[in-house]
Design a protein that fits this description.
Layout lengths: L6 H7 L11 H8 L6 E7 L7 H15 L3 E7 L2 H4 L14 H7 L3 H5 L13 E4 L1 H4 L4 H8 L4 H4 L3 H8 L6 H17 L3 E5 L3 H15 L4 E5 L26 H9 L6 H8 L4 H12 L4 H16 L2 H16 L8 E5 L3 E2 H8 L5 H9 L3 E3 L4 E2 L6 E2 L3 E5 L3 E7 L1
Parallel strand pairs: 1-2, 1-4, 2-3, 4-5, 6-12
Antiparallel strand pairs: 7-10, 8-9, 8-11, 11-12
Helix pairs in contact: 11-12, 13-16, 13-17, 14-16, 16-17
Length: 405
């Protein structure tokens, strides 16, 4: 496959959603316009079964580079997931078992395949797992690898500095994480790694090892993290359960995007869609001139649902949203649960999966976010019991039809 050296495409790849290019943008741009086929990878640790929109940024950039004709690799961190990346963590990560990691990876290929073409033919991306080489390393191999770094280099990391200041423990195996990720670059013999800005230290460890072991340069592209520009907090937070999964059902995905704060609209357009930068500038101007953010958010939701599902389902989700929330109607699809007369709505909601726990149900009651749609009665009693078939609105976007037998 001939390498596409279109300078306009390359400039966008090296600019959009990119924090920095190391060692320099100019050097990488020259390499990409030279016509040389590069080997490029991005990876993610199997710490959860769901990939989310925060992950999509790196996969979108990877796919654009694949379309230019470069060889791309997606690394599933099945071994490193068991060590635990200390990045952005003030405490030790939970250690995962082999079984948990395997379960987490079950649907990853399908999720990523919605963004990146994965195939052994026609320059498709290939998937690798780092347990293939990391699990075979001897203690002697680890010592040899560790001899390339100093303790001073390791404690320069922000999260380690913070733990030292707060007198919190740093475990020795946490120092090994960047070595393991760095060694991935050596084994794969890559020219370029793409990863979140919070992974810069780990990616540069790979650059160091490439220079020492292979006497070869490795470029690094740290990408923007999907954060709320107003609060600085991550928009996708697995530990808090606030993620938009790449395999979310289309109605749910649409609703979650509509629930994003208004200030997140532009960052999500930039990092998670293929809308052109010129078009995004127009959207910015529309928002600045007073266009209702809800209307712009509907467009954003449709764009994303189309990527992961289809235009038909995006249109259906939009109509469902309008019927439900703009016109006060009900969604076409409502979860149903069978009940016995006098059964607690909290138990039914948990059983139907509409809420995760009775604690969440109680919180929604206190917020005045649960009501009977048949009577418009707002429920205030956490122990409310259902005595007849009814439809309940639970929270902003969830509905439950309780069928009393």
């Amino acid at each position: 496959m001939k390498i596409d050296t279109d300078p306009k495409k390359i400039e966008e790849i090296l600019t959009r959603s990119v924090v920095n290019v190391l060692p320099t943008k100019e050097l990488l741009k020259n390499l990409l316009t030279s016509g040389k086929k590069l080997k490029i990878y991005t990876g993610a640790d199997a710490t959860g079964a769901k990939l989310h929109l925060g992950h999509s940024t790196n996969f979108i950039i990877l796919e654009k580079l694949r379309q230019l004709g470069h060889e791309v690799i997606i690394l599933f961190g099945d071994f490193t997931a068991k060590i635990g990346d200390p990045t952005d963590k003030s405490t030790l990560r939970k250690t995962l078992t082999d079984r948990e990691v395997k379960e987490n990876l079950k649907n990853w290929k399908k999720q990523i395949g919605k963004i990146v073409k994965i195939s052994i033919f026609n320059n498709g991306a290939r998937i690798v797992k780092n347990s293939k080489w990391l699990s075979k390393m001897s203690f002697s191999d680890v010592i040899k690898l560790a001899s390339n770094f100093t303790v001073q280099q390791m404690i320069e990391r922000d999260m380690f500095k913070k733990r030292i200041e707060e007198k919190k423990p740093i475990y020795l195996h946490e120092f090994l994480y960047p070595l393991m990720q760095g060694y991935d670059s050596v084994v794969l013999d890559v020219d370029l790694e793409i990863g979140g800005n919070d992974q810069t230290f780990n990616m540069l460890a790979g650059r160091t090892l490439q220079k020492i072991i292979r006497n070869k340069e490795k470029y690094v592209i740290p990408t923007t993290l999907l954060i709320n520009p107003k609060t600085g907090k991550k928009l996708m937070n697995k530990s808090e359960g606030s993620i938009i999964g790449l395999d979310d059902e289309f109605q749910d995905m649409f609703g979650k995007i509509m629930a994003l704060p208004d200030e997140a609209i532009i960052p999500v357009f930039i990092d998670c869609t293929y809308i052109s930068t010129d078009e995004i500038e127009k959207i910015k101007q529309e928002l600045a001139s007073g266009t209702n953010p809800r209307d712009i958010k509907i467009r954003l939701a449709k764009e994303i649902v189309t990527i992961y599902h289809s235009k038909k389902e995006a249109d259906k989700a939009e109509q469902n949203f309008i019927n439900t929330f703009k016109e006060g109607g009900l969604p076409e699809k409502i979860d149903e649960v069978l009940a016995i007369n006098g059964e607690a709505l909290s138990d039914l909601s948990v059983r139907a999966g509409v809420v995760k726990s009775k604690g969440e149900f109680r919180r929604l009651i206190l917020e005045g976010a649960i009501s009977n749609q048949e009577t418009s009665y707002k429920i205030t009693d956490p122990n409310y019991k259902v005595i007849s078939t009814s439809i309940f609105k639970i929270g902003k976007r969830r509905f439950l039809k309780v069928i009393v037998e």
